[in-house]
Write a structure and sequence with these properties.
six-stranded mixed β-sheet; alpha/beta; four-stranded parallel β-sheet; about 425 residues
């Protein structure tokens, strides 16, 4: 599997290099330039095929030129003690729940896979990696779980003041753990700007092997890709129809994972998504990415601190602009329609639904016209556990879901006893101290 840049198609690097460098020097982001056709393998898997088996087989198929099947299997096995949960709501409506990981968030899949990949390969090649990321708290809680026991990875996580949560005392670097939480003055934008200043210093980045754990890193995306063939394996013998996915667009990472799954020859007919200010519809109702009006090479560099999946989406459809019209279906959803959808999911199926899942279901109901026939199959996808949106659930349906203990733990605020910093230079000093 080779990767190129959204800004320079002459670039060609292997998976390991793309993961290590995280982002190309030309200001773009890494995207696959070649993808294996997995048609034969996809039609062989079924409901008895485990998630780790799918993850291990796909890992081996995609990076077989760099790592042996045994190493690929170890990466997958170490990464996933959890899997998506697939259920059938009615004849041609299925539900994919991605909240069964460490912290109840779908990012658990990608982060755990990224950490497992790096730890396994660094054990073979030597060296260390330091993640530098901004987080509201959820990413930190996920990394805390994924990094426990790891020897070659540390993370410097930057929070706004009083927002550190989901960590244990043993997770802190000064207590022998892998995470250095940093509280920083300023808004989210100011903090991300400081991180961008650090990453702009290429000599410093290379000296300390800095990377990110957000979906700018292609390895994060690969960990999410596995969810789509797994869901197909679970439902393939229950439907003979076209398969669509209804999913919230979020930061477009899961949408990109689904599109790359289609490139592997997974039989997916389209993605129905709530529109966003950046990915919406034009006056004719066709999907449009507003950033596309500006040539990629005339834009500023991508910021490693901010997921760049929208640029990946542009790149994916750059040669197939007409295909986007028949593959991605953005729908504008207002608050009233969203809440009506949430109530319907609760009354008809007994499902608590957060804002994202409610919007995805509302989008599905609005775009029944895109389904090729009445028998078409739709997989409604829930990204996160509804208990993370208890207030919303209580407001809409009058009840709130129980919060599992692991999610409660991930939400607990933590005091670090470290001073609040104010600048990129102070952040660099903390990174230096990890050596």
């Amino acid at each position: 599997m080779k990767f190129t840049s959204t800004r320079n198609k002459n670039l060609s690097v292997g998976f390991s290099q793309a993961v290590k460098e995280c982002y190309p020097s030309d200001g773009g982001v890494f995207v696959p330039s070649s993808i294996e056709d997995m048609r034969r393998w996809i039609y062989y898997i079924n409901e008895n095929t485990s998630f780790t088996s799918i993850a291990g087989s796909l890992t081996s198929a995609l990076i077989k030129d760099e790592h042996s099947p045994i190493i690929c299997e170890k990466i997958a096995t170490d990464a996933f003690s959890f899997s998506p949960k697939i259920s059938q709501l009615e004849n041609n409506l299925f539900f994919m729940d991605l909240s069964g990981g460490f912290t109840g968030c779908h990012r658990d899949f990608g982060v755990s896979y990224l950490c497992s990949y790096l730890e396994t390969t660094l054990q073979l090649t030597g060296g260390n990696v330091i993640f530098l990321d901004y987080t509201h708290g959820n990413l930190g809680a996920t990394l805390a779980c994924a990094l426990r026991g790891k020897k070659h990875i540390k993370a410097v996580l930057v929070y706004e003041k009083n927002q550190v949560r989901g960590l244990e005392q043993n997770d802190f670097v000064w207590n022998g753990g892998n995470i250095y939480p940093v509280e920083m003055e300023g808004s989210e934008g100011n903090i991300k700007s400081a991180l961008s200043q650090v990453f702009a210093d290429k000599e410093f980045v290379n000296a300390f092997n800095l990377s990110v754990a957000n979906t700018t890193n292609v390895c994060r995306l690969l960990g999410q890709i596995f969810c789509f063939p797994y869901s197909f394996a679970q439902i393939k013998n229950k439907t003979n129809s076209d398969i669509y996915y209804a999913v919230d667009s979020g930061t477009y990472g899961l949408l990109m994972a689904g599109l790359y799954s289609w490139r592997f020859a997974l039989p997916v007919s389209g993605f129905i998504i709530p529109s966003t200010p950046s990915l919406t519809v034009d006056y004719s109702g066709n999907p449009i990415i507003l950033d596309s009006f500006v040539d990629m090479n005339k834009r500023g560099n991508s910021n490693p601190a901010v997921p760049a999946n929208l640029e990946r989406l542009e790149d994916f459809f750059s040669s197939y602009k007409m295909m986007m019209r028949s593959f991605v279906y953005p729908v504008q959803i207002d608050k009233e329609t969203q809440e009506k959808a949430s109530k319907e999911l609760y009354i008809k199926y007994g499902l608590f639904a957060d804002e994202k899942t409610s919007k995805a279901y509302a989008a599905l109901k609005e775009r029944r016209d895109v389904l090729s026939e009445d028998e078409s199959c739709v997989v409604l996808t829930a990204l996160d556990h509804p208990s993370l949106s208890s207030d919303y659930c209580r407001h809409v349906v009058g009840e709130e879901p129980l919060m599992p203990d692991n999610i409660k733990k991930a939400q607990l605020h933590v005091k670090t006893s470290k001073k609040v910093i104010t600048s990129a230079s102070e952040l660099k000093e903390i990174i230096k101290s990890l050596n």
